[in-house]
């Protein structure tokens, strides 16, 4: 990994770097617990019925959105 040009500054755009208030170990722990308790059971429900469709997130939001709509198209009325 290359050495940073300036401490606490983005090498790409020169913006100041900072830690978001919600970017903490405790926040990550809560998010993971929520995922395991609420999302995984929903995934298992649909997977058991062979109707789970997974879409890989893309770099561009528009690309992910397109893939989601393509995955849902067979289920549209």
Please describe the structure with a list of short key phrases separated by commas or semicolons.
77 residues; flat
Number of helices: 2
Structural class: mainly alpha
Provide the residue-averaged pLDDT.
91
Order of helices and strands: HH
Provide the helix percentage.
40-55%
Regions with pLDDT < 50 over 5+ consecutive residues?
none
Categorize the overall geometry: flat
The main pleated sheet reads as: none
Strand content: under 5%
Number of strands: 0
> Span between N and C termini?
51 Å
Return Rg in Å.
Answer: 19 Å
Q: Can you offer a commentary on this structure?
A:
The protein is mainly α and 77 residues long. It starts with 24 loop residues before the first helix and ends in a 5-residue tail after the last helix. The chain has a domain at 25-75. The chain has helices at residues 25-48, 61-72. The radius of gyration is 19 Å and the shape is flat. The protein is built from 2 helices and no strands.
Characterize this entry briefly:
The chain is an all-alpha fold and about 80 residues long.
Topology:
Blueprint: H1 25-48, H2 61-72
